[in-house]
């Protein structure tokens, strides 16, 4: 890998894992009271739990698409959004957050090991580079919504 490629991979890794210019998921949910995970404030159509689960499902889908030509995405939109406003229990919450972190690490490993510009088999022109940008953009968008919900519930810094 030449120096320019190494720099690009390093910057993508930072963008995916640290957020660089914005708060990451870990910070956005840190200290969130358990009783607020399922609240849908001010007639909004989703709760923090639903946003976390949506991040998990969408990121998992992008990871699987990037590495498995036989992957079948869930139906849109119902397959990407949980119906339940709150997690069934603490284990469900923890499993979702853990899977987000683990899948993000696995995708970061793809960024480090695969040709960023090679078209993904079975796709219509997508590359690992494009999927990396999409994951970062998608996660940042919904993490910002989590922070907004926390502000609306007076549960943010």
TrEMBL record:
<dbReference type="InterPro" id="IPR024775">
    <property type="entry name" value="DinB-like"/>
</dbReference>
<feature type="domain" description="DinB-like">
    <location>
        <begin position="26"/>
        <end position="146"/>
    </location>
</feature>
<protein>
    <submittedName>
        <fullName>ABC transporter</fullName>
    </submittedName>
</protein>
<dbReference type="Pfam" id="PF12867">
    <property type="entry name" value="DinB_2"/>
</dbReference>
<dbReference type="InterPro" id="IPR034660">
    <property type="entry name" value="DinB/YfiT-like"/>
</dbReference>
